[in-house]
Amino acid sequence: MTQTQIKEIFTSIQGEGHLIGYTQLFIRFCKCDFKCKYCDTDYKPDATSEIYTANSLAERIKSYDTKNIHSICLTGGEPLADAAFLKEFLRNITLPVHIETNATRTEDLKEIINMVKYVSANIKLPSAYGGKDCFKKHAEFIKMCKQARKDTYIKIIFDENITDDEIKKCVDIAKENDLEIVLQPVTKGGKITVKSRYLPEVLERFRQKYWHVRLIPQVHKMLSVR
Ligand code: SF4
Fold it and tell me: Model pTM?
């Protein structure tokens, strides 16, 4: 039986993307295969993290009063780094499932896609996250979400260094799959680090190429909730 370490389980208000404002039950996984320079998510295991089997985590979830909970949010870290665990765990879950992912692990997503309803697919911009170009992997991943008819949006975390080439590559993926882009300025320590004059400018650079783009900061941080 597979088991994994879970950083934390909590209910809160979703502060990003399509499901913004809904109450979700968040499960934070402890692994991640990226090292984004803007990351301020505390996902690494610590003394309070707990090890669960698929069954024991499902039991824990059942102990919550879920009548006012819109959906479960699998977050991290990168939940798909635990795909084998998720495959067992999600079989026992009745609430709709939303996954927040770095949108590169297509083979892992295939394992669980039938048990997922919503996908927040984060395209990583080299100019902002500080790593290599993953656009090919993102394109493959997002195409699969679309083909499987998942409720998907594309999240893009950006700063002042975003390039025209990155914008074009993001827009190409969004257009090909007819999906919405949600732009999110880099936030650190609860503060947006992108100067405000750049925000409409970046939005406009996208909108010159594609109509279906919104800019939304991390609302949960403005609300001072998790
Ligand atoms: S993918 Fe997410 S959790 Fe992982 S390092 Fe990047 S921002 Fe942090």
Answer: 0.96
